[in-house]
């Protein structure tokens, strides 16, 4: 079973990953506007992932999906464009 929440600082944002009853959600906090908003959904929602960030880029790898299956994929998040990109294996 997945964790209820994860968080990651990237660029001028704090990303908070959580779980609703039927899906994963991402919320973004902007330190520039002092406000919260919904974030873009990942291509493969995950929790319990490994992560690293540098400036406006974050990489999330591994983890598990909502069924508890282990993921071997990774995604890159760009906080300037607010987009997710699947990384090659």
Written description of the protein model:
The chain is globular, with a radius of gyration of 12 Å. By secondary structure, it is mainly β. β1 (5-10) and β2 form a beta hairpin. The chain has one domain (5-86). It is built from no helices and eight strands. Strands 1-2-3-4 form a four-stranded antiparallel beta sheet, with no helix packed on it.
Features:
48% strand; mainly beta; 4-stranded antiparallel beta sheet; 89 residues
Distance between the termini: 25 Å
Strands ordered across the widest β-sheet = 1-2-3-4
* Total strands: 8
Q: Helical percent range?
A: under 10%
Count of discrete domains: 1
Protein topology:
Layout: E1 5-10, E2 13-19, E3 24-30, E4 35-38, E5 50-54, E6 57-61, E7 74-78, E8 83-86
Antiparallel strand pairs: 1-2, 2-3, 3-4, 5-6, 6-7, 7-8
Brief summary:
Helix content is 0%, strand content 48%. By secondary structure, the protein is mainly beta.
């Amino acid at each position: 079973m997945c964790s209820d929440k994860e968080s990651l600082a990237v660029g001028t944002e704090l990303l908070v990953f959580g779980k609703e009853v039927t899906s994963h959600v991402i919320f973004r906090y902007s330190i520039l506007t002092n406000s919260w908003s919904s974030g873009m959904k990942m291509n493969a929602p995950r929790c319990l992932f490994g992560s690293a960030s540098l400036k406006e880029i974050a990489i999330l790898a591994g983890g598990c999906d909502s069924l508890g299956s282990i993921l071997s994929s990774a995604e890159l998040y760009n906080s300037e464009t607010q987009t997710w990109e699947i990384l090659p294996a």
